[in-house]
Amino acid sequence: MCSETVISKGITAKQLQIVRAAYDLFKENGFYATGVDLIMRRAQVSKRTMYSYFVTKNQLILAVLGHYRNNCQDEINQILQRPELSSQDKILAVFENAEKWFVDTKFHGCLAVNAMAEFAGKDEAIEQACHQFKVWELDVLRSLCTELGVQNSAKLAYKLLILLEGMGAIAQFVKQPCLIDIKQLVLQVMDSHTMEQN
Amino acid sequence: MCSETVISKGITAKQLQIVRAAYDLFKENGFYATGVDLIMRRAQVSKRTMYSYFVTKNQLILAVLGHYRNNCQDEINQILQRPELSSQDKILAVFENAEKWFVDTKFHGCLAVNAMAEFAGKDEAIEQACHQFKVWELDVLRSLCTELGVQNSAKLAYKLLILLEGMGAIAQFVKQPCLIDIKQLVLQVMDSHTMEQN
DNA sequence: ATAAAAATAAACCGATCGGTTTACTTTTGC
DNA sequence: GCAAAAGTAAACCGATCGGTTTATTTTTAT
């Protein structure tokens, strides 16, 4: 274990290989429905290796949720770092980015939401990871709203999160370019906070 | 099978007993995670009886989704039938009713959304039942929006569904009286359709 | 070159999965 | 009152579940 090449964030190549395969399978087929045998086959890794890195399936699920969160954070950070964008444009860019996810025919909802639905009340660590993911999402939106200079950034962020989650939930059912102009809806909700007190 | 007392909508008492137990378990623990043995124990019914009514577990799941839909439809119909409410008040009442669901600590998301996440691409009939549930929800909102006399009732209904789904998704994570005034948010989205073209 | 570390394939484990079958009892209609 | 229908309990089925073990091979560091 001494000299394995560490790829990033303390994850070795083999671990990443397993997590990626598990991530794809969980995303497509859900957590309970995906057996460990299928994961190891997809990852092209022996079961023993798998269990040397992840003591239980649920700990692998935790790692996958961490991987998912890292992916999302990288995407969002790239938006936040674009200096040419105003705070308002960054918020719109966050929604545009989310739409890229939603239009994928393989999109079956936010992984954290699905994990919460399957493990709420059954695995505290997973529950907490899902909760933390949403806290992070809300934090991103809130700090952007604060930059906007609106009266109550926390409340506006909460409203935007409702829009984001709502779009994600519906996206699983309606597979087509969104019926409405999301950008306009987001702007409208933002506008109400720059004009009146909320 | 000739003379069994039919309770409602072609469902016998025994069937309802099974569906109710399965409904509670699926709602709390998810579909894959809930085994048939647990369902029959909870329903106080032998496995043979269970399988005489529902040929497979997935057909039981279909029946449970139908039961869920009937429950929701009954609640919504009670709102729609209140003559003292304006169309706008009825829309607000729909959201108020949804909040009653959301604040329940046992609420783990819309059953149709969860079923879609677990069975999308795996069981066409279940997938379709979930889809039809959302179509019904959208239809209720659209007919109310049409009554409102707004310019584009379909688009407003879609926006309201986004709000409804978003609230539901978040409700699993944030267990507390909602941070924002939902009624105000709904009114705001509706107002934009009565004033401008959309 | 060699020994430790890390990987593999595959047999194996008890438990549970969805589902069937057998043998028996209760309820019901006529 | 009696036969058919509908119910029960429980053994049983092959498959799969999450997880372990064994025996062997490959990789890697010195």
Largest interface: A-B, 44 and 44 residues
- Characterize the largest beta sheet of chain A: strand count, sense, and whether it forms a barrel: 2 strands, antiparallel
Oligomer: homodimer
Order of helices and strands of chain A: EEHHHHHHHHH
Residue windows where pLDDT falls under 50 for at least 5 positions of chain A: 1-5
Q: Trace the largest sheet of chain A across and list its strands.
A: 1-2
Shape summary of chain A: elongated
- The percent range for strand residues of chain A is under 5%
Question: Mind explaining what this structure looks like?
Answer:
Two copies of one chain form a homodimer. Chain A is an all-alpha fold. Chain A contains nine helices and two strands, in the order ββααααααααα. Chain A has a two-stranded antiparallel sheet. In chain A, a hairpin with a 2-residue loop joins β1 (about 5-10) and β2 (about 10). In chain A, α1 crosses α2, α4 packs across α5 and α5 packs parallel to α8. The N and C termini of chain A lie far apart (about 55 Å). The interface of A and B includes residues 29, 118, 120 and 189 of A. Chain A binds a DNA duplex (30 and 30 nucleotides) through α3.
Helices and strands in order:
2 copies of one chain form a homodimer.
Chain A: E1 6-8, E2 11-12, H1 13-29, H2 36-43, H3 47-53, H4 57-80, H5 87-102, H6 111-119, H7 124-148, H8 153-171, H9 182-195
Helix pairs in contact in A: 1-2, 1-4, 4-5, 4-7, 5-7, 5-8, 5-9, 6-7, 7-8, 8-9
Chain A binds a DNA duplex (30 and 30 nucleotides) through residues 1-4, 14, 35-37, 45-49, 51-52, 56-57.
